[in-house]
Write a structure and sequence with these properties.
Strand content: 5-15%
Largest sheet: 5 strands, parallel
Number of strands: 7
CATH topology: Rossmann fold
Order of helices and strands: HEHEHEHHEHEEEH
Structural class: alpha/beta
Radius of gyration: 20 Å
CATH class: Alpha Beta
CATH architecture: 3-Layer(aba) Sandwich
Number of helices: 7
Helix content: 25-40%
Distance between the termini: 54 Å
Strand order of the largest sheet: 2-1-3-4-5
């Protein structure tokens, strides 16, 4: 009887050990994003603005659950864990935001990707999903610049893109970093993203024909994003 008890204890300890090993081996995913990657109560810090709410604002979207977001689907399907989702609705990569009827650009340096890029925890994989608001706001494009950035330079898209990727590959060594490029943006933005990504050897996932409502992914669109990200990573 004692031998049987010892056997059960041994199996129990092995089970706990394997569960712990699995948890430790699951890759951690962080997101640096804009509204496309937000969901109420699932962004850090929680003061970041969100587009997707609980309960949902159904006049804007049919996405009603965090489980329907592209990143939650991707993480769950692949057995990963969420590290940090630092997404901010309306955020631009550069410091220049929307004019909103004024002659000058809004100063978005409090929420830009360049400002938030150091706050992603300690992940194994990072997805940068941005550029949409830079395109919609008509932020200055600027020139390609791969060093010596001043704060003034970072109010233009190309220098800010380069500064962000340069910083991130140094800040997060041995981390898989991917840039997700939205569809439907101006060619100048598309070209700039691809050129800067190629310079820093950061893979660029170019999305195609994403279903949207009010410019934002629907439930179908979220699934399409997840599928296209998975397809890219499987190649």
């Amino acid at each position: 009887m004692n031998d049987m008890k010892r056997l059960f204890v041994a199996f129990g300890l092995l089970y706990i050990f394997f569960l712990g090993s699995f948890a430790q081996s699951a890759k951690l995913v962080s997101i640096l994003g804009d509204s496309y990657s937000t969901f109420q109560d699932y962004v850090q810090p929680d003061t970041n603005w969100v587009w997707y709410f609980d309960p949902a604002k159904t006049m804007n979207t049919d996405v009603t659950s965090v489980r329907e977001t592209w990143w939650h689907q991707f993480i769950k399907k692949n057995g990963y864990q969420l590290c940090v989702n630092n997404s901010f609705s309306g955020a631009t990569i550069c410091h220049s935001g929307y004019k909103r009827g004024k002659p000058d650009y809004s100063d978005f340096s409090d929420r830009s990707f360049v400002t938030r890029m150091g706050n992603l925890g300690s992940p194994d994989i990072i997805f940068i999903f941005g550029g949409t608001n830079d395109a919609w706001a008509g932020s200055p494009i600027g020139e390609y610049q791969y060093g010596g950035w001043t704060k003034e330079d970072l109010y233009s898209f190309r220098p800010a893109m380069a500064k962000m990727l340069s910083f991130m590959i140094d800040r997060y060594p041995n981390v898989e970093i991917y840039f997700i490029l939205n569809d439907g943006l101006q060619e100048e933005i598309n070209e700039s993203v691809k050129t800067v990504c190629e310079h820093y050897q950061v893979p660029c996932i170019v999305l195609k024909e994403i279903d949207k409502s009010h410019g934002h992914p629907t439930v179908k669109g979220m699934q399409q994003i997840c599928e296209q990200v998975e397809a890219f990573l499987s190649e």
